[in-house]
TrEMBL record:
The active site is at C307 (proton donor). Pathway: Amine and polyamine biosynthesis; putrescine biosynthesis via L-ornithine pathway; putrescine from L-ornithine: step 1/1. This is ornithine decarboxylase. Transmembrane segments: none annotated. Belongs to the Orn/Lys/Arg decarboxylase class-II family. The lineage of its organism: Bacteria, Pseudomonadati, Pseudomonadota, Alphaproteobacteria, Hyphomicrobiales. Its cofactor is pyridoxal 5'-phosphate. It catalyses: L-ornithine + H(+) = putrescine + CO2. The modification N6-(pyridoxal phosphate)lysine is found at K29. Its EC number is 4.1.1.17. Gene3D superfamilies: Alanine racemase, Lyase, Ornithine Decarboxylase, Chain A, domain 1. SUPFAM superfamilies: Alanine racemase C-terminal domain-like, PLP-binding barrel.
Length: 359
């Protein structure tokens, strides 16, 4: 995988222009390359981290602790303590039990409560693993407040690769209601974490970042009036996705029978375990370029090289590839800068992890 830092720089500047009063917290998990983190730290980005290791990487890249959020709602207490010792004072929660850990391990810190969001319109919808129902958030934040933490705000995530620019509206309506309920209980919340979800271009066209910025600002004004909260965003895919591409080799092309209409199987030297995990359920469909583009196209099943039957990327909806594609041909997989190197297995079937080059 080769990643172009100039594209990352352009993406960061686009986010900064689209939402000028919103702080950018880059989601480190999307691509934690030291070069990417250093560039973003230099540009003034903050960082959303999911582990102590990611916190340490952001610090090593030049970020100060006040520019780092421990945004995972599922944390070991000893990891909270370690983050606190490194200066982190901003933590995500979604239940009382997680609040209690922070009370013990990071006293006096700021917490924001993540609420559930349906993710309609997203190509990679999120499950119910993270967040609580909006009606529960005020209780969680009040518990934090009564135990010496700062009830700081609310967060949500509208689903990854969200192509609906209006998806933030309902979540912001819920957030405003939580702000009002907390005010009644004596807590003045300050911040709304708008999460990620900003898409990168794969096979389908996606709206520009400015359209998301306009829509989000309208929704904020609609639900909060003139008393707009502080806001942060957590772009990951939208920051680095279109900055990277993967070169892969065709290992085998075959059919499962002699039937004339049998769909061809094309096996690449990369699959779900080599970095293309987001092809699960065929959610993310990567653009693929070949030297035969322009020739007659035929439907193909696309699979990876490992001895695992789950290592099939596209079968329910076969992928159109040139009929002239041959064993040994190189193909370029575009939009591969996010969630590829980090999803790559260490040594499944003995295949090495995906190499990464930053230019």
């Amino acid at each position: 995988m080769v990643l172009d830092l100039d594209v990352v720089r352009d993406n960061y500047n686009a986010f900064a222009r689209a939402l000028p009063d919103t702080r950018v917290f880059y989601a480190v998990k999307a691509n934690p390359s030291p070069e990417v983190l250093h560039l973003l730290a230099t540009l003034g980005s903050c960082f959303d981290t999911a582990s102590v290791v990611e916190i340490e990487m952001a610090l090593a890249a030049g970020a100060t602790s006040d520019r780092i959020s421990f945004g995972n709602t599922i944390k070991k207490e000893r990891d909270i303590a370690r983050a606190f010792s490194l200066g982190i004072r901003l933590f995500a929660v979604d239940c009382v039990a997680e609040v209690d850990k922070i009370v013990r391990a990071a006293p006096g810190s700021k917490v924001f409560c993540r609420i559930l969001c349906d993710g309609a319109g997203a190509e990679w919808p999120l499950s119910r693993k993270f967040g609580c129902v909006p009606e529960m958030a005020a209780d969680v934040l009040e518990h934090a407040h009564r135990n010496g933490l700062e009830a700081y705000g609310v967060s949500f995530h509208v689903g990854s690769q969200q192509r609906n620019t209006e998806a933030w509206d309902q979540a912001l309506a819920s957030s405003a209601e939580i702000f009002r309920e907390c005010a009644v209980r004596g807590m003045n919340l300050s911040m709304v974490n708008l999460g990620g979800g900003f898409p990168t271009k794969y096979l389908k066209e996606v709206p520009g970042v400015s359209r998301y910025g306009d829509s989000i600002f309208r929704a904020l004004s609609k639900h909060f009036g003139n008393r707009l909260p502080e806001t942060i965003i957590e772009p990951g895919r939208g920051m680095v996705g279109n900055a990277g591409l993967i070169e892969s080799e065709v290992v085998l092309i075959s059919k499962k029978s002699d039937n004339e209409d049998e769909v061809r199987w094309v096996y690449l030297d990369i699959g779900k375990f080599g970095g293309l995990a987001e092809t699960m359920d065929e959610s993310i469909r990567y653009p693929i370029r070949t030297r035969h583009d322009g020739d007659e196209m035929v439907p193909c099943v696309l699979a990876g090289p490992t001895c695992d039957s789950a290592d099939v990327m596209y079968e329910k909806e076969p992928y159109m590839l040139p009929v002239s594609l041959s064993i040994g041909d190189k193909v370029l997989i575009e939009g591969a800068g996010a969630y590829t190197t980090t999803y790559s297995a260490v040594a499944f079937n003995g295949f090495p992890p995906l190499r990464s080059y930053v230019i």
